[in-house]
Amino acid sequence: MMHYHYIDSPPSLKRLVLELDHGKLDYPFGSIDLIYGGRIQNPAILSNRMEDANSLVQESLLVLSEVMEAGDVITIELRKKHVLEQIILDRVHELVELVHDSGKLYGMLYWIKAGRTGVCSMKARVVQDKKGAASKIGKIRANMKDHDYRDYLSKQERVGSDVPRREWPQLLTFAEAADYTGFSVSTLRRESPDDLPRIRRKLRKTDLDKFLERKGK
Q: How far is residue 211's CA from residue 217's CA, in Å, rounded to a whole number?
């Protein structure tokens, strides 16, 4: 399998290309250590090289088109404090969002695994991450081991990939609860804590389902 690593850091027009023996991988597939952990000598890596590549981002629009075999991987490291929105990517391809533990040296990392052989195309907007509680990077960093929640965050950004109600996280922020219920944040905050209990300033999905039943939705 092949692994193509792009760095969104103008004026860099290089990419790292790794050829991997999948049978010898001794770390979790998708580990950020593959790129940043100093493990280029790992026996799973059959070859690695730097090569010229076209810039992925033009005027805040990321466009990727790569001929891949099923199982091949592309990673895209964004510039610091930036994230992707409105991601257009065929559902057959897997998308995982990663952040480095330190959060200071590297930008956000997008990990794409080809679900079939052929051209893998992706388009997305590159935008500055929001601040405070709305920060995408902050949400991922605060939920590093909650894979279901991270998968939910990833699906939210993919155009045409509505998240089924059963796949929403069990605890939601007020902003997420507003999206889930269709009611405004202010309406949810006005609800009595007895009717809509707060759990560490979040709301349980089960309580929101009961709230919707009471509202006839």
A: 9
For residues 2 and 72, is the Cβ–Cβ distance under 8 A? yes
Statement: the pTM of the whole predicted model exceeds 0.85: no
Give the distance from CA 110 to its chain's centroid.
Answer: 6
48 contacts: CB under 8 Å, gap ≥ 6: 16, 17, 18, 19, 40
Which pair of tokens denotes residue 48? Answer: 């690695």
36 in Cβ contact with 42 (< 8 Å): no
Neighbours of 149 (CB within 10 A): 20
pLDDT digits (tens, 9 = 90+) for 118-153: 999 999 999 998 888 788 888 888 877 777 788 888
* Distance in angstroms (rounded) separating the CA atoms of residues 58 and 64: 11
Helix (H, G, I), strand (E, B) or coil at 91: coil
Query: Which residue in 165, 204, 169, 166 sits closest to 188, CA to CA?
Result: 204
Domains of the chain by residue range: 2-162, 170-217
- Give how far the C-alpha of residue 18 lies from the chain's centroid of Cα atoms, to the nearest Å: 22
Q: Please tell me the distance from the alpha carbon of residue 160 to that of residue 176, in angstroms, as a whole number.
A: 18
Q: By the 8 A CB rule, do 203 and 177 touch?
A: yes
Contact between residue 114 and residue 46 where contact means Cβ atoms under 8 Å apart:
no
Rounded distance, CA 156 to CA 65, Å? 22
For residues 164 and 142, what is the distance between their CA atoms, to the nearest angstrom? Answer: 23
Of the candidate ranges 16-20, 73-77, 162-166, 175-179, the one whose mean pLDDT is the lowest: 162-166
